């Protein structure tokens, strides 16, 4: 069953301003289990720009169905900061935060494009599923529509075309339906993609 994505972001008007000429970057933080939303809320109170992608799912209890929100990436959230010692300490002193991901505990920055891909998917409410992480396959970019510019790896799943959007540092991915979108391959030469709803092929020429 596909899940409807939503997101929890900082109430601040935008990303933090540059500090001493430094550019804010995205970092993943490791949280205690089931503390992701609590951590995101506390970080927002500190006016730290935070992104917590949440999936909306239906869960069945003994007597009823209920709608719940679960983190897309269990035990992780994202912050956008200028990585000064003061900013790191401000994040690390937040209850429920276990540390930064990568860089021997100092945190490895995540490419803006990877986070922006995720933010676009969640902002537009595109149904998606957690997907096994992939780092090989056909790299494509969506052209037009709500997901214009989103890049990912095109795969086959249950005979449907799916686009896998990944965060390499976490080794985590999400899968979204790619049918109906125009896809441009990010490679050289023509690529043939079979539409699962018909026998015709779409020939996509690389730019």
Overall shape: it is globular
Number of strands: 14
Strand content: 35-45%
Query: Count the helices. How many?
Result: 3
CATH class of the largest domain: Alpha Beta
Helices and strands in order:
Elements: E1 4-9, E2 25-31, H1 36-45, E3 49-60, E4 65-71, E5 76-81, H2 85-92, E6 97-100, H3 112-123, E7 128-131, E8 138-143, E9 151-157, E10 160-167, E11 172-177, E12 182-185, E13 191-194, E14 201-204
Describe the structure.
- The chain is mainly beta.
- The protein has 2 domains: 1-110, NusG, N-terminal domain (Alpha-Beta Plaits), CATH 3.30.70; 111-207, no CATH class.
- It is 14% helix and 41% strand.
- The protein has helices at 36-45, 85-92, 112-123, and strands at residues 4-9, 25-31, 49-60, 65-71, 76-81, 97-100, 128-131, 138-143, 151-157, 160-167, 172-177, 182-185, 191-194, 201-204.
- Strands 1, 2, 3, 4, 5 and 6 form a 6-stranded antiparallel sheet that branches.
- A hairpin with a 4-residue loop joins strand 3 and strand 4.
- The radius of gyration is 19 Å and the shape is globular.
- It starts with a strand and ends with a strand.
- Residues 11-19 and 188-207 have low confidence and may be disordered.
Describe the structure concisely.
It contains 3 helices and 14 strands.
Key attributes of the depicted protein:
207 residues; mainly beta; Alpha-Beta Plaits; 2 domains; six-stranded antiparallel beta sheet
């Amino acid at each position: 069953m596909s899940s409807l994505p939503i997101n929890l972001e900082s109430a601040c008007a935008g990303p933090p301003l540059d500090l001493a000429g430094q550019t804010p970057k995205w970092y993943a933080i490791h949280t205690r289990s089931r503390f992701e939303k609590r951590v995101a809320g506390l970080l927002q109170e500190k006016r730290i720009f935070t992104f917590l992608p949440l999936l909306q799912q239906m869960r069945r209890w003994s007597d009823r169905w209920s709608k719940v929100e679960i983190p897309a990436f269990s035990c992780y959230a994202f912050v956008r900061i200028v990585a000064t010692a003061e900013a790191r300490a401000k994040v690390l002193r937040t209850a429920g935060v276990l540390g930064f991901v990568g860089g021997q505990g100092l945190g490895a920055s995540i490419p803006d494009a990877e986070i922006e891909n995720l933010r676009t998917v969640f902002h537009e409410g595109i149904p998606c599923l957690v997907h096994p992480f992939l780092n090989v396959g056909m790299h494509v970019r969506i052209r037009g529509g709500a997901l214009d510019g989103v890049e990912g790896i095109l795969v086959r799943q249950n005979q449907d075309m799916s686009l896998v959007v990944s965060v390499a540092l976490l080794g985590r991915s999400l899968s979204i339906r790619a049918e109906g979108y125009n896809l441009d391959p990010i490679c050289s030469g023509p690529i043939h993609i079979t539409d699962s709803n018909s026998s015709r092929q779409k020939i996509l020429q690389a730019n």
